[in-house]
Amino acid sequence: MEIEVDGLRKRYGQVSALDGVSFTVRPGLVTGFVGPNGSGKSTTMRIILGLDAADGGRALVGGRPYRSLRDPLRAVGSMLDASALHPGRRGRDHLRWIANAAGLPSRRVDEVLERVGLAGGAAKRRAGGYSLGMRQRLGIAAALLGDPRALMLDEPVNGLDPEGIVWIRGLLRSLAAEGRAVLVSSHLMGELEDTADRLVVIGRGRVIADTSVPELLSAASGGRVALRTSAPAEAMAVLSHAGGTVASVGADALTVTGLDAEATVAALGASQVPFAEVSAHRATLEEAYMELTRDAAEFQGVPGGAA
């Protein structure tokens, strides 16, 4: 079951929150949804779930608007705000209330509590005493109640300890492996790098990138090669002659574009220029994201803390 967003537009007074946003969340894949604060992520997710109305465009789940789905929780499960809990209600009772309201079998409550690691005593505690990580797990359990074919999770890693982060990473991968379409909003690029198959990057209400993680990293890496040599002047001359663009980044360090690592080694070896290290530069997802959204952030601090 796909989640399809096509040309979404939304204004709040004079502010354009969404300006023609389009992307598709496909079954069997984890799609990361990222962007600076105020970029339109939350507005997009709320429109998909029928919580806000778009001024233009459409958002479909399995080919239909959310509000027209006969059994919405069986189609798409969501967690937008893990703190949206009655503090006096026990975890298991919170899920029972949702299951009863949606006409879901009560057995699903214990099944999802087990899957998110809240079975036993934790489920009997009142939600007001839950840590942020426990509230996240309970919110994910609620999203899974209907055994949906699509999932939308907003910042599911927030509040999780290292063990919980490993757990959520495995959970997202397993949900996608079961054939579900999984949309995950997150600001932790490192987690998406290890988890997401595709990334949709949004800024100022527009999609900046919609690509696979490897493709984005490859583009951000720019075909650069890092080189260390005791003869930087000779290396620069040789590599420039071979068609590379060479820049000095340290006393014995160069970066090369236009030549891959193999061609760099071959050119240096042919001219007998000594070198200690040659490696292809691999950008991190954080670097790729920062480059893409550099001009899309609503708020930007002053470097170095200057005032």
Enter the CATH topology name of the largest domain: Rossmann fold
Structural class: alpha/beta
* CATH homologous superfamily grouping of the largest domain: P-loop containing nucleotide triphosphate hydrolases
Strand residues, percent: 15-25%
Distance from N terminus to C terminus (CA atoms, Å) equals: 50 Å
Give me the side-by-side strand order of the main sheet. 5-6-7-3-8-9
The radius of gyration computed from the alpha-carbon positions, rounded to a whole number of angstroms, is 24 Å
Low-confidence runs: none
Contiguous helical run count: 12
Give the strand tally.
Answer: 13
Q: Can you summarize the main beta sheet?
A: 6 strands, mixed
What is the class of the largest domain in the CATH system? Alpha Beta
Give the name of the CATH architecture of the largest domain: 3-Layer(aba) Sandwich
The general outline is: elongated
Helix content: 25-40%
Give the ordered list of helices and strands.
EEEHEHEHHHHEHEHEEHEHEEHEH
**How many domains?**
2
What can you see in these coordinates?
- By secondary structure, the protein is an alpha/beta fold.
- The chain folds into two domains: 3-214, P-loop containing nucleotide triphosphate hydrolases (Rossmann fold), CATH 3.40.50.300; 223-280.
- Helix content is 36%, strand content 25%.
- The protein is built from twelve helices and 13 strands.
- Strands 5-6-7-3-8-9 form a six-stranded mixed beta sheet, with helices on both faces.
- Helix 3 (91-102) packs across helix 4 (107-115), helix 4 crosses helix 6 (132-144) and helix 9 packs across helix 12 (285-292).
- The chain is elongated, with a radius of gyration of 24 Å.
- The model has no long low-confidence stretch (mean pLDDT 89).
